[in-house]
Design brief:
Structural class: alpha/beta
Oligomer: single chain
Radius of gyration: 19 Å
Shape: globular
Number of helices: 11
Largest sheet: 8 strands, parallel, barrel
Number of strands: 8
Helix content: 40-55%
Bound molecules: 3-methyl-2-oxobutanoic acid
C-alpha cells in the first residue's frame, strides 16, 4: 500500500538530507498517472517528451503551452500522491519574464505543483520571476532536448573539462537561485557526482549514472513502448508492454474474425 500523503517540494529536501533516493517518471494522461502512482513513484513529470513518445514528432520543439496544459490536466485528474511537475515547452519561457510566469501559471492551474525549465545561468531571470510568483522550479541541465539544434543533436554533454566546469557552475546558480531540484540528462557519471556534491538540492539523473539523488525515466522507454524510436543506451526496459498489447489485440482480432467474440 502506498502512503497517500501528497509529496511536496519540502519532502524532497528532507529525503536528500536522509539519503532516501527519489524516483520520477514521465506520464501524459490519467491512466499512466494512475499506474505510476500505484507503483509509488515520488514525482510525475508531464514532460515535453510527449511530443516524441506520444505524438510522433522527431523532437520536443513541436509542443506548445496549450498542449502541455492539456496533458498536465489529464495527469492531475488521477489525483496522484506524487508531485506533478509540468514541463515548460520551448519558447514558453524564452521571450519575457511576464510570458514565462503566465505560461507557468497555466500549468499550475491545470494541476502542476511545480514546473521544469531547461538551461543554466541564462535562465536565472525566468527562475527568479517564477519563484516570486510562488511557483516551485526544477532545473534541467546537460543534454537539454529543446537545444537540439544548438547542440548539434541528442548527445552526451559535459565531456570536456571546461564544459563540465560550466555545468557545475550552472547547477550551483540554479540551486542558489532557489530551484528545488535539478535534472541532469546525459552527462558523464563523474560530472553528475561533482554537481551532486556541489549543490544543496536533489539531482535527478537520466543517463547520468548512479551518483544522483534520484532517477527519472520516460514511461515509454521503461515499459517497452518505444516502437521504432531508438532507445537511449542507459535505459533498462522493465517490461515489453507494446508486444504484450499487440499480442492481446491480435487475439481480439482473431476472435472477431472467427466469431468467438462476442
Ligand atoms: O520531457 C521529458 O521527458 C524530460 C525528461 C527526459 C527529464 O525532460
Amino acid at each position: 500500500m502506498n502512503d497517500r500523503k501528497k509529496v511536496t517540494v519540502p519532502d524532497l529536501a528532507r529525503w536528500r538530507e536522509s539519503g532516501r533516493r527519489i524516483s520520477m517518471i514521465t506520464a501524459y494522461d490519467v491512466v499512466f498517472a494512475r499506474i505510476a502512482d500505484e507503483a509509488g513513484v515520488d514525482m510525475i513529470l508531464v514532460g515535453d517528451s510527449v511530443a516524441m513518445v506520444v505524438l510522433g514528432h522527431d523532437d520536443t520543439l513541436q509542443v506548445t503551452i496549450d498542449d502541455m496544459a492539456h496533458h498536465v490536466a489529464a495527469v492531475a485528474r488521477a489525483k496522484p500522491r506524487a508531485l506533478v511537475i509540468g514541463d515548460l515547452p520551448w519558447l514558453s519561457y524564452h521571450v519575457s519574464v511576464e510570458e514565462t510566469v503566465r505560461n507557468a501559471a497555466r500549468l499550475v492551474r491545470a494541476g502542476a505543483g511545480a514546473v521544469k525549465l531547461e538551461g543554466g545561468r541564462k535562465r536565472l531571470p525566468a527562475v527568479q520571476a517564477l519563484l516570486d510568483a510562488e511557483i516551485p522550479v526544477m532545473g534541467h541541465l546537460g543534454m537539454t532536448p529543446q537545444s537540439v539544434h544548438a547542440l548539434g543533436g541528442f548527445r552526451v554533454q559535459g565531456k570536456e573539462l571546461q564544459a563540465a566546469r560550466e555545468l557545475v557552475e550552472d547547477a550551483r546558480a540554479l540551486a542558489d537561485a532557489g530551484c528545488f531540484a535539478v535534472v541532469l540528462e546525459c552527462v558523464p557519471d563523474g560530472v553528475a557526482r561533482a554537481v551532486t556534491e556541489a549543490i544543496g538540492v536533489p539531482t535527478i539523473g537520466i543517463g547520468a549514472g548512479r551518483h544522483c539523488d534520484g532517477q527519472v525515466i520516460v514511461w515509454h522507454d521503461v515499459l517497452g513502448f518505444s516502437g521504432p524510436i531508438r532507445k537511449p543506451k542507459f535505459v533498462r526496459e522493465y517490461a515489453d508492454l507494446e508486444s504484450d498489447a499487440a499480442a492481446a489485440l491480435a487475439r481480439f482480432c482473431a476472435d472477431v474474425r472467427s466469431g468467438g467474440y462476442p
